[in-house]
Amino acid sequence: MIRVKGCDGASSRWPELNEIAPRIAQCDPTIWGKEAQAEASIRLGWVSLPESSRELLPQLDALCAWSRERGHSNFILCGMGGSSLAPEVIAATYGKKLTVLDSTEPNQVWSARQCDLKSTCIIIGSKSGSTIETASHKSFFTKAFRDEGLEPADHMVIVTDPGSPLDKSSREEGLRVIHANPNVGGRFSALSAFGLVPASLIGVDVSLLLDDAYDAAQEFDREDSSVVKMASYLAQFRYVAFSDAGSACNGLSDWIEQLIAESTGKNGVGVLPVVVTESDLNSIPTITFTEAGKLSVVGPLGAQFIFWEWVTALLGYLLKVDPFNQPNVTESKERTLEILKNWGTRESLPPTFEDSDFAIFADFNAATPSDFLRRFFTDVDENGYFALMAYLDRIGESELSAIRKSVANFSKRPTTFGWGPRFLHSTGQFHKGGPLVGNFLQITVESARQLTIPQQSFGFERLVMAQALGDGEALRSRNLPFMRIHIKNRKTGLPKFIELVRELATN
Questions:
Q1: Checking CA distances to 436, which of 2, 113, 124, 347 falls within 20 to 30 Å?
Q2: What are the pLDDT digits (tens) for 250-269?
Q3: Residues 326, 424 contacting (CB under 8 angstroms)
Q4: For 364-380, what is each residue's pLDDT tens digit?
Q5: DSSP assignment of 385-418, as one string?
Q6: Bridge partners, 159 (sequence order)
Q7: How far from 394 is each of 108, 353, 417, 423, CA to CA, in Å?
Q8: Euclidean distance between CA atoms 401 and 360, whole angstroms
Q9: Which helix (H) or strand (E) holds 282?
């Protein structure tokens, strides 16, 4: 079911992993060492999901019948990280419509709201229910339904762990709740309720995903298996590019990015996935998902999900890290809450440079925005990478992501692009926990839309800015190269910024 090509170059590690793979199949929590054992003991449920998730099928059938009875034709998933990335790939692969709201950017939230609420079903996915983004989305849409005289219980589905705060509060509100397996971490949850509930509601036959995953996994614990080969291969590199261009699995690279970056980027080590549309640098390998690729992994989506989860678990073993925790993700969350609590003081640092379009915050001076960019992208460690972090509307302003290739071409360094705050649940862990050789350009924008979050003293426009500032604080506290460009006028400043970066790459 899974065919790998081009990754036979690290066979010296195969015997070691040949002994570990059967222990993963047996859900042995001691594989990753004593410090990781407690976490691993409650995070290995993903191994058996191709079988155990079949228990959800009757619930999913009943849920879909309920949805049809209420005339739902528009589905919006509110979730972050693993709760949203896998369903987005599933929808794209099967050609189904699903709006994924994984942002606190006001324009993106407002755009999702511009629909016929009478025919809309909101899916809230959160393990704990305490994730600030999804909690804000839930409050926002609950009020929107009530403002139109609609009962939220007829239009909302909650996916969460049993006994979570979200589980308890949702049941009190009379909402439909589907429990996820509590022994599965978010980024390993593609084949759990977090992936299968949205997929079922939009009309995907999820039993096929489970069949493909089950069939593929039958060879993973055998000698010199595909997962052993790929994990051994990846462990040689700090940077590996992924391109799903031309494949049937649009968005798979983004899902893999979160899985590997957040799982391995800690204790000063890790493998950073670089999502590309085509190869930028000959110095780092590029994995594709088509038969034509020299280095490729080919197989159906369900098989891809379980394959990369196994690879990541084995890679964690080789790197000597706990693949199931995310110690530095919480740091940015805490800083965000502190900034929101003390709004009016910590966000008021003066810019280094300012004109009618931009305010630039940097620890060096330059004469023009172009000079700032040129100096920032030139001064880089030979082993370093660039991370572009954009707190804008990833749907309505998707053209901004094209700057990633321009920066990579100019700097000749691996370059990632992340939409904030979504990347905080993905590469954000690697930025702060992996090798401290990153260079970070943060892009923020002045919000013209004020969008209230019910029961909060702040709106989405303040929340997204606090998330950007909080992550900036976390990066600067490590003395990492960091610069923030704030676009003051969205209409004129955004295209001007994109053009400045393009000119940089061509001159």
A1: 347
A2: 999 999 999 999 999 999 99
A3: no
A4: 999 999 999 999 999 78
A5: EEEEEE-S-TTTTGGGGGHHHHHHHHH-S-EEEE
A6: 125, 178
A7: 7, 26, 11, 12
A8: 20
A9: none
- Per-residue tokens: 169: 């509060």
Q: How far apart are CA 319 and CA 267, in angstroms?
A: 10
In angstroms, rounded to a whole number, what is the distance separating the alpha carbons of residues 125 and 133? Answer: 11
Conformational region of residue 423, where left means phi above 0, alpha means psi within -120 to 50, and beta covers everything else: alpha
Structure-token pair, residue 36:
């990781």
Which contiguous run of DSSP H or E holds residue 473? helix 460-476
Identity of the residue numbered 170:
S
Nearest to 414 by CA among 400, 435, 433: 435
Answering whether pTM is above 0.85, one says yes
Burial of 496 (0-12, 13-18, 19+ CB in 10 A): middle
pLDDT at 443 over 70: yes
Of 222, 261, 321, 217, nearest to 17 by C-alpha is: 222
| Least confident residue range of 5-14, 40-49, 228-237, 301-310 | 5-14
194 φ/ψ angles, rounded to the nearest 5 degrees: -65, -35
Backbone φ and ψ for 487, nearest 5 degrees, come out as -85, 115
Residue 105 is encoded by which pair of tokens? 């950017």
The one-letter amino acid at 448: A
Judge contact between 426 and 389, C-beta under 8 A.
no
The string of pLDDT tens digits covering residues 320-356 is 999 999 998 888 889 999 999 989 776 567 999 999 9
Compute CA distances 412 → 126, 254, 308, 506, whole Å. Answer: 38, 22, 28, 13
Apex 308 CA angle, 305 and 312, nearest 5: 140
Average pLDDT over residues 410-434: 95
| Cβ pair 133, 103 in contact under 8 A | yes
β-strand partners of 452: 459
For the chain, what percent of residues have pLDDT higher than 90? 90
pLDDT in tens, 449-461: 899 999 999 999 9
Query: Two tokens at 181?
Result: 């397996």
**113 pLDDT above the threshold of 90:** yes
**For the chain, what is the mean pLDDT?**
95
* Distance (Å, whole) CA 286 – CA 253: 11
Asked which of 155-159, 194-198, 406-410 is least confident by mean pLDDT, the reply is: 406-410
Torsion of CA 92, 3, 294, 411, to 10 degrees: 50
CA-CA distance, 90 to 94, in Å (whole number)?
6
